[in-house]
Amino acid sequence: MEIKTEDYCVEYDPTLRTVTFAGRLRLAGAEDYAAIAQLLDDTVTQGLPLVVLNLQSLHSLNSSGMAMLSKFVIKVRQHKTIQIIVQGSKDIPWQGRSLKNLQRLMPDLQLKLD
Question: What is the value of pTM for the model shown?
Fold first, then answer.
């Protein structure tokens, strides 16, 4: 499954259990993020033991996008049977600061900044 525009791409690869984000996600609000949120929710309903969020090529994410990711992490935390790995980049300044907040929401979340 893939959601693609001129500014960003969000793609789910079921064989790798990975949702890859790339580009600049600066949508207006929760309604605009609904399709991406649904893609993430679909990974939870599959009952997989592991979901990887690859954000290494996501150069920009606004507060609405961060809220969407936070809600997803909370939803996964409530299932208690799914592990999340978040892959980020040390070269993208906002990721080091903001992605650590996801760990506060779900202490078992693995954050890998390369």
Answer: 0.94
Domains held by the chain: number? 1
Residue range of the domain that includes 15: 2-113
Cross-strand pairs, 52: 18, 85
Question: What is the per-residue pLDDT across 28-55, written as a single tens digit (0 to 9) for each?
Answer: 988 999 999 999 999 988 888 999 999 9
What CATH number is attached to the domain comprising 69? 3.30.750.24
Do 102 and 77 form a contact (C-beta atoms < 8 A)?
A: no
Answer for the pair 65, 27: CB distance below 8 angstroms, yes or no: yes
What separation in angstroms does the CA of 1 have from each of 12, 82, 94, 98, 113? 5, 20, 27, 26, 25
- Give the Å distances, CA to CA, from 73 to 6, 7, 19: 27, 24, 13
Count helices and strands in the chain by DSSP H and E runs = 3, 6
